[in-house]
Every structure is written in structure tokens, then in C-alpha cells.
Amino acid sequence: MLVRYxxxxxxxxxxxxxxxxxxxxxxxxxxxxxxxxxLNRDAEKSPFRFYWKTKVVVTSFDLDGNVSYSDILNxxxxxxxxxxxxGNLFIRVDNPGRNIKDLLNxxxxxVGLGFISEPxxxxxxxxxxxxxxxxxxxxIGLKVSDVVIAEDLISRMEFSSKQGIDxxxxxxxxxxxxxxxxxxxxxxxxSAMGQISVSAGGLxxxxxxxxxxxxxxxxxxxxxxKTDNINR
Length: 232
What we know:
By secondary structure, the protein is mainly β.
């Protein structure tokens, strides 16, 4: 199953010790409009679910053409984890969508003054250093932009190959300046396979048998002391 991830670097007020404990102070209830629930208290990386309600107005017509309106409450949720790596605090959001703003606003309302969240972006992703024990790493998808074709002409390009791509061998890119937007890699390890797509904007997509291992390696490398590979 394909899962999308996005990370945010979190800073708390100096007097606040644990974000997880603070979130548990606002549990979700049927009476409230929003709240948090912890999914597994024993997990190393605290997994939470944020619930919030939205109202939908439904329009109805009777047989005489008269209009009536009614409100329906819809309960939404998004899963995320609180991750503390060597003193650096992150939130990892699973399958992020437009609800990210609701989540971060809710956390800020609890934490108060001093809460800062910054999205993590990946611009110098080096798969050979991340997946050090992989038997095979193949670049099978590549999206680039700002390819300078001429002085007043730039282009976006997308490449795909099951056999693997060597960017240096792409004639169309040789001698041109460009920006890598997304790289998709096929990873194999002891006959198991997984795929990971990493965008410079910070969105990471992972699927396949190796999904848990790939996620762990990305977080262990990119969110640890190798901060030169993270732009915040």
C-alpha cells in the first residue's frame, strides 16, 4: 500500500518538556469540535490521531418545490507521529492533505506562544548513503524543472525507465542547468522490494515489502545528525 509522508520540525517553549503529554490534555470527545487520541502508548514514536468536525449544509426540496436546509456534522481525522531524534522534535504526518493547517493550528492553540513548525524539504537526497545495506538501488523515475534550453526558454521534463536512469547519460540534460523535483527509486534487499519517491518539496511516498524499513532508514539518516541533507 502506498503511503505518503511529510515531516515538520517543531519547536516548543523552553518550559515545555513533552509535546505528547500536552496533546493528551485535549482528548477527542463526541461533544467537542476537535481533539487528539493516542493510538499506541507503547510505541517508540508516539502515534496520534487528530479528529476535527466540519459542518456540511444539505439542501432538500419537497414535492411542492419548497426548500429546506439541514446541517450534517462530518468527523475528519489525520494520523501523525511525534518523533524525538537526538533532541530534535518532528511531527510526521501520514497521507497529508489540506488538513495539515487544521492539525498545526490545533497544536499551536494548545502549546501557545513559542510554538514554531517548519516543513522539512529534501533537496540533496543521496540514496546510496541512506539505504546503505541495499542489494540494489535503481533510479526509475525522475522529474526535473527549470531546465535551461535557451537564454529565454526553460522546460520541465519527466523520465521513466524500469531498467534504471543515469541522469548524466541523458543527452537532453547535458550542459543544462536544472532542478531535481522528484526522484523515484526501486530498492531491493534480500529478494524483497520497495519503492520510494522523494520530492524536493518534502513529500515522500513509500510502498512495497520494504516500506517499514525504508521509512526507518529515511528518518534515521535525514532527521538525525545529517542535518546538511535537510533544508528547514
